[in-house]
Design goal:
It contains ten helices and ten strands. The chain has 258 residues and is an alpha/beta fold. Helix 3 runs parallel beside helix 6 and helix 6 runs parallel beside helix 7. The longest helix is centred in the middle third of the chain and has 14 residues. The model has no long low-confidence stretch (mean pLDDT 95). Bound molecules: adenosine-5'-diphosphate and magnesium ion.
């Protein structure tokens, strides 16, 4: 299920503003890659180019290539909706549908895509909640609203919703930044389990988190305010945090930045 991501020469704009420039990297299946770097350097923008969500923003435009295994996500005739099914996303603030039950929140993506047998829906919801380490906490209240859960539970509910449609890749944009430390650890443990099945890319402003959860780390930076963000280096996480190749990375991770 997990697929390899291969990005080459990717540049993204908001209207005439070039937000990120000429980014190339590969992400191996069943691995976790963390994106770090100062605010505004384009981490979220780049993440959204990986499932064609960037173009949903007005003026959003992309140049370059994103391959998922052999398929060019920006190729002619590719349906962005099917791309977003293959490449799921979890956001900074948990965003369950507030009026929907826990069950319906997980089933929502499936119902939208229609790619399941009705008789299997209950099993898929259960499997997804188990996969998100949430089942034991909610199995007795599946018909209660998702908004009644704690922040950490809501985020795991959103992860269950994302994995219910069996994506190949999971993108996470600062998924723990609204959570308390215990819930954060629960999500980090979960990421360790999910990488057995998915290709995972996570944006985090927390360097300890990047060090704990990721196999590889990519450092992004801007030369100056108003300039496009660039990928400075990507390497094994251990290497980035112990012996990076570029001085700017060293400065950033040791807190000597800006
Ligand atoms: N919706 C938007 N419209 C216009 N510019 C945007 C929008 N979102 C982000 N940007 C700009 O793109 C650049 C990168 O932002 P972003 O991807 O959010 O960075 P990061 O996630 O690293 O903080 C910034 O200059 C930001 O102002
Ligand atoms: Mg961001």
């Amino acid at each position: 299920m997990a697929k390899r991501i291969d990005v080459s020469g990717l540049t993204a704009y908001y209207g005439s503003h070039k937000a990120i420039e000429d980014i190339s990297m590969t992400v191996e299946p069943r691995s976790v890659t963390a994106f770090i770097g100062p605010s505004g350097c384009g981490k979220s923008t780049f993440l959204r180019t990986l499932n064609r969500m960037h173009e949903v923003t007005s003026g959003g435009r992309v140049e370059g290539k994103v391959l998922l295994d052999d398929e060019d996500l920006y190729g002619a005739g590719i349906d962005p909706v099917s791309v977003r099914r293959e490449v799921g996303m979890v956001f900074q603030r948990p965003n369950p549908f507030p009026t929907m039950s826990i069950f319906d929140n997980v089933a929502a993506g499936l119902r939208l895509n229609g790619s399941y047998k009705k008789s299997e829906l209950g099993d898929i919801v259960e499997r997804s909640l188990k996969g998100a380490n949430l089942w034991n906490e909610v199995k007795d209240r599946l018909n209660k609203p998702g908004s009644g859960l704690s922040g950490g539970q809501q985020q795991r509910l959103c992860i269950a919703r994302a994995i219910a449609v069996e994506p190949n890749v999971l993108l996470m944009d600062e998924p723990c930044s609204a959570l308390d430390p215990i819930s954060t650890l629960a999500i980090e443990d979960l990421i360790g389990e999910l990488k057995e099945r998915f290709t995972i890319v996570i944006v985090t402003h927390n360097m300890q988190q990047a060090a704990r959860v990721s196999d590889r780390t990519a450092f992004f930076n801007l030369a100056a305010v108003g300039q496009p963000g660039k990928l400075i280096e990507i390497d094994e996480t251990e290497r980035i945090f112990s012996n990076p190749s570029v001085q700017a990375t060293e400065d950033y991770i040791s807190g000597r930045f800006g």
